[in-house]
Amino acid sequence: MSRIAYVNGRYLPQRDASVNIEDRGYQFSDGVYEVCEVSEGRLVDERRHIERLQRSLAELRIAMPMSPAALGVVFREVVRRNRVRWGIVYLQITRGVSRRDHAFPPPGTAPSIVVTARNLDFANAEKLAADGVAVVTVPENRWERVDIKSVSLLPNVLAKQAAREQGAREAWFVDKEGRVTEGSSSNAWIVTRDGKVVTRQADHAILRGITRTVVLEVLAAHGLKLEERAFTVDEAHAAREAFVTSASQIVIPVVRIDGRPVGNGAPGLIASALRRDFHRHAEFS
Length: 285
Ligand code: PDD
Hints:
By secondary structure, the protein is of the alpha+beta class. Helix content is 31%, strand content 27%. The strands form two sheets. Strands 7, 8, 9, 10, 11, 12, 13, 14 and 15 form a nine-stranded mixed sheet that branches. The protein has a six-stranded antiparallel sheet with strand order 2-1-6-5-3-4. Helix 6 crosses helix 8. The longest helix is centred in the first third of the chain and has 15 residues, at 46-60. The protein is globular and about 55 Å long.
C-alpha cells in the first residue's frame, strides 16, 4: 500500500509528493511542526497539539493556513488513507515559497502545509518500555527559544546520532550549570530517592510537551509529589527512577545514564504506572 501525504490541499501518493526547492522550510528551517499520537485509529490530544501549533506559529509570525477544525479533518483523512491504527500523524507548516531572501517574503505568501501519518511498531515500543532505555548527556547547544516547535532541529539530530553511536536511545541536553534541559526529542524526568517526581519548569529552555502536560495530570490523580524545577546530572545519577515522555513514545523508563544504572537498573514503578494510565487522562478525537 502506498503511503498518502497531504500537500497544500492535495492528497498524493508519497512518492509524488514534493515541495518547491525555494520553500523556506527547505532553505531556512523557517517553519514549525507537530507530532500527534494515533491510538486505535484516533487522534490523541489533538486539541492541545493544535493549540501549541498556533502558539508556535504566532511566535514566528506565520499565518495559520487553515482553521483548527479543517486541520482536524485533514489529520483524520491522512490517518484513514494510511490505515494508521497506532502511530503518529506529522504536520509541518512553513512560511511558504519565495525567492531566497532571509527577511520575510512579501505579504500574502501562502504558508506551505504537509501532513503525513504512519504506523509505528507497537510491539517494539512495548519492549522498549519493558526493558527501559539508555540515555547519554550532551552539552546544550540550541538557541534560547526551544519552546517554539521549530523544524530547525540540527542540534537535536546531532545529539540523537551521538546517542545512537553510544548504544543509547536518547540524549539529554545539559546546560552550563550542569542541569538537564530535555531530551533531543522528549522531555526528561527523574524520581528522587524520597519519591518526588521532578521535571524542568516549562520556560523557554524546553518544549512544553503535550505528553508532559498530561503526565502532570496523571501524577496529580495519583497524589504523587511533583517538583517543576531543573535537576542536575548528579541528581539524575542518584535518582530512584528516570524516564522520558513524548507523543510517539508516551512514557519510557530510563535505566542507564552515561553508562551508569539508574536506581536498581530496571524500569521504575512510577514510570511504568504513568505509562499504563496515560491514555485514561488523554483526550481522544
Ligand atoms: N518530539 N522536547 C523535544 C525537543 C521534542 O522534540 C519533543 C517531541 C518533546 C515532547 O513533546 P510532546 O510530548 O508534545 O511530543 C520534548 C516529537 C515527538 C518529535 O520530534 O518526533
